[in-house]
Amino acid sequence: MASKYLTGVGSESKQLATWYFTFAAILFGAQLLFGLVAAIQFIMPGFLYGVLDFSIARIIHINALVVWMVFAMFGSVYWLLPDETGIETVGIKIGKLLFWIFAAAIVVVVLVFLFVQVGPADDTTIWFITEGREYIEAPRWADWGIVVVALGFVGNLFLTGMKGKQTGIVTVLMADMIAFAGLYLAGMFFTDNITVDQYWWWWVIHLWVEATWEVFVGAIAAYGLIKMIGAHRKVVEMWLWIEVAMLFGSGILGLGHHYFWIGTPEYWWEIGALFSALEPLPLVAMFIHVLYDWGKTQGAEMAKEGATEDNVKSVITNKPAFTWFVLNAFGNFLGAGIWGFFHTLPQVNLYTHGTQFTAAHGHLAFFGAYATILIGMFYIAIQGTNGIKVMHHTKLSIWSTSLITGGMMVMTIALTIAGYVQVLVSRAEMGATWAAYFDGQGGVWFAQAMDWRLIAGIVVFIGYILLATDLLTTGKNPVHEK
Ligand code: HEM
Ligand code: HEM
Ligand SMILES: [Fe+2]
Q: What CA–CA distance (Å, rounded) separates 149 from 151?
């Protein structure tokens, strides 16, 4: 479905980006559907029992999450590369071929999760059904496929970055994406010691979301600010370098906050406490960066002669995308920064570990830090593929943004309350015994929070349907300026 507006330098790269975005958007929908199934099972444990058990619904929910985000991240890079480097992506034909291999592999993995589900306790299960490491549960054959695709992607990025104009954004992405792909290897080898296994598994999970993915977000935000509000590249890239230094500075040893209770030496308490407590700082910087640039650009327009409210607003060339970028600044700060900080000190984590509090943080952080900005990138691609100069909000974009964001906030609050009940009843009052674990979940506050999570989930899903409809139809909507 090549668009007539995707012509000239970089059109192939942008077309590949749209494939990645499309597949990502579909997987996002699948993620939400399986989340709903898991949420219903919390309330009615017999729901789909024996057909689609909680363990499988949960696996698909969180793996689809990771995969759709990785697809959307690859798509974002293929989209912005020609804009930044001024040339077509080098090796784009191979990039396109790898997309199909990647997409086919993911479909097969999901079908096996759905229809085979479990296998014998030996190597065949690891190779063909699941490797069993939360969030990256794909079997080993798929792991190797992913490694090949990631190498091709990094190859595209490096060859293009070296041949074309090398902006700060491209340089940061080159360094970041090689770390991102390389870390995946830490989640691939097998050991029969669960502590060692968890130790390395966190290298993927934590170092991805709290180091390499956050740096990616910094780079995308920088690109978006230049593109959508005409922010000055010099200022934006200066911020980007500061953020990169702070993110890696705190995020790498912040890894210690997952080493409190898995059997690693006790010095991780101090290391984890100190460095992970610093992790919200770069998120504050990213937050200020977006709002500062926005204010500055608008201020400059306001100061111009003859400026009115209306023509100042039109400085933003893509309103739905920019809304999602601003939500990203807030969401990243709240979900990762605040909700992360809540439970990051070992003294607090002793009580919150393994409660719904973790899930509250996990939901708001993944949503706030990543889903938001990636949805923003979907809109930037829609703008480009439809040759739109200024993209306005539509009724659908306003409703979908509000329902998805509002729903996720309510879900987070419900899960936080559930976690609080578990901390008080299961841990503080009853002393973390087996009976306490069940008592904590038997109470009315916990049960009601689970109901609210489901209600909020349904709202998010309705928002998703509206979002998908908007993405499919907005290109032809006459409200936009061509
Ligand atoms: C966008 C960035 C982030 C994302 C997507 C994210 C996501 C998550 C998720 C999904 C978990 C649960 C992992 C599991 O299944 O065990 C988790 C755990 C945790 N996160 Fe984050 N997080 C982010 C940033 C942060 C930050 C900045 C902090 C600290 C300031 C933090 C502190 C923690 C802690 C302490 C845990 C362990 C909770 C426990 O097991 O007791 N996170 N995070
Ligand atoms: C329709 C909306 C959603 C519903 C009903 C839902 C429901 C659920 C349920 C029931 C679980 C299992 C919790 C447990 O094991 O205790 C879960 C886990 C998780 N979900 Fe969702 N979810 C939804 C949307 C999302 C979104 C939009 C994201 C991120 C962008 C997300 C990220 C996660 C993560 C990271 C976990 C693992 C958390 C952990 O282990 O701490 N979910 N979700
Ligand atoms: Fe972490």
A: 5
